[in-house]
Amino acid sequence: MNWAQLIAIARLLAAAPDYGERRGRPQQIQLRKAVSAAYYAMFHALAKSNADTLIGVSPPFRGLPAWTQTYRALDHGFVRGQISRGLTAFAPEIQDFGDAFVALQEKRHRADYDPDAEFSRSDAVFLIDRAEVSIRGFEATEPTQRKAFAAHVLFRSR
Prior knowledge:
Elements: H1 3-14, H2 28-54, H3 59-62, H4 65-72, H5 76-84, H6 92-113, H7 121-139, H8 143-154
């Protein structure tokens, strides 16, 4: 999954239509799916970073079953728990990513599972922007920081 494409889809969903009776107002289903896509952009950015930093980034590594296994090992609930335990040992960009990840996960749960949830267009755009900025900051951190974060969100501490 390409996180940038998920962000682009989220932006399209949150955009106001130029025609018809809904002109200027996206439907709630569009806004809800935009919020969900923004969260999944963060999730897949993290999954890819984990696999790249722990297994390898070049094409031969990405073809290994271990790369896919590492990518798929990311668990939504476990990540949330690990982030909630604190990120003070990590760079500010990773701390920001973690905070945004938890916030967007909560909004995604509302968007996907709460039948009464409603989002304004400005709320959805804010969350999409937050996801994109957080991902870009996360990706700009040192590989050693991202590798340590991968271990933090994938493995139990004993």
